[in-house]
Structure prediction request, 305 residues.
Amino acid sequence: MKKNWWKVLAIVLILYSLIAGFLGDVPRRDILNESIRNLYFHVAMWFAMIAMMGASLGYSIKYLSGNHLNIDARANLFAEMGLVFSILGITTGSIWAKFTWGAFWTNDAKLNGTAITILIYLAYFILRGSLDDREKRARISAVYNVFAFVLMIVFIGILPRLTDSLHPGNGGNPAFSQYDLDTNMRWVFYPAVVGWILFGIWVSGIRYRLYSIKESLDQWRNDSSDQLH
Amino acid sequence: MEKRLFRPIALILAVMLSVGAKAQNEVAMADVMRENGKIYVVVAVVAIIFAGIVVYLISIDRKTNRLQKQVDELKK
Prediction:
């Protein structure tokens, strides 16, 4: 239980964001109306996704300096978790866009940027799937992951800020200025982000456990087939 | 004399303030939903669903943990 305190924290923070997210005070804004509360849920997905990709990048760099295959597996599984968050982010964003901007998809710089980012990470998984040699797969995909992360930052962190965007905080304005996010909302939004990041680490850890069980099974299978020959 | 002037000015100020407050309230929000308290029902439902998913996640966490321990013991 002592080791799992952060899992409890994840549950508490997310639950708090669900309750306070519905009941807390939010600014009255035209067009947005109550949908402003989506910030707690939709935007938190993107923050969690970036954190997962960051963890994946960290493990990729660690792999390149140590060449341990489990580290490569960690990188892979964090990227997978990030992909889950990004798909949740893009679908929820699409619904929100429909009712505030008028269309499920607009030619907004940030929307296209996220779509490209998802494709970049899908390419990461395709790259992994197409290489049979494990060492080679780990090394090449680790190098690719560094590029993928940098491209993600360019496509969702930099380019949308350089052009006009429907998203607040883009098109020259610094994100999360006083104007965009009021203090009440910060108190729900940031706990939600931390909660979802911890949640992602949790699920990713379970996936890693399944990976290592499968590893042991594969090893036994190889050992027993060696004995037969 | 001063009192006579003060009254209409106060009245005008009061009207302006109330109009201003109304203009602020014009943005449609789910006020009725919050007024009669039914929003708590929705929050309760959402919280229960999340709690259920979490309980299931915890059980998956424990089961995989146990499985890994068994595998690790066989390894020795």
Chain A touches chain B through 22 residues (CB under 8 Å). The radius of gyration of chain A is 20 Å. The first helix of chain A runs from residue 5 to 23.
